[in-house]
Specification:
single chain; 58 residues
Length: 58
Amino acid sequence: MPGKAKQYVDQSMSSVQTTVSTLQQALSSAEKPDNKNKIQQAINSLNAAQQQLSGYQD
């Protein structure tokens, strides 16, 4: 079914945006530098994944 995969990709992009937003809240409330670093790395990874997916065409 054409377009179905694109639908899933779009849903995933939306989920990634929500997750990044939530992680940014966690980042601002984290106290230990090591934890801040881990959260920032996760945010960076998700942003990279989102950038990859933004080029998806069906």
